[in-house]
Amino acid sequence: MRKTSIVLIVIIAAVAVLLYSCRGDGNPSGNATPQSTTTAPTPAPEMGTSAFQRPEPTSPEEVARRAMTVTFTWAPATDESPTSGFRRATQWFTPALAARLTSDVRYERGPSLQWQQWSNDNARVIADVAIGCSGCPPDTDTTAHRVATITQTAVIGDTPHPVEPEITVWLTLTEADGRWLIDNLTY
């Protein structure tokens, strides 16, 4: 009886973690091989709500991880485009970068076929982000460089589908007023 109870508790906990991580909310070059410096991933906040607040991240790694998780986690059925993720992550960008990344760009072709298919399937695209520093310049008191490797999974119904290829983003963070913000990013 005791073993059954323990197994049941472990299964319930695993299901709860899976369901919580799938809730609605957040250019590979092969040159960098970032190594994760984070512990357990923190799911992106639910989109369109502010039901809970997390403590403000204090390290460049945590800022980079949170920003890239929110940026690359999408709900194509409700998001206008991948730019919606950048809009949700502006709190971790400098004002100049936020303005550049979220400007209202008009596309002649419309959304990609993949985006449209995800929208039709009511898919959620979940980002898993690893932060590293392979080949980064040394940190200073006010500047840090990091490399983010983003692995996305499209979840359609209850079925996960890996999204290829991984995305690699090089980030420059600056510290001002005791807070790290992403000042530049390149693919």
From TrEMBL:
Keywords: Plasmid. Residues 28-60 are annotated as: Disordered. It comes from the Bacteria. Residues 32-41 have a biased composition (Low complexity). This is Lipoprotein. It comes from Rhodococcus oxybenzonivorans.
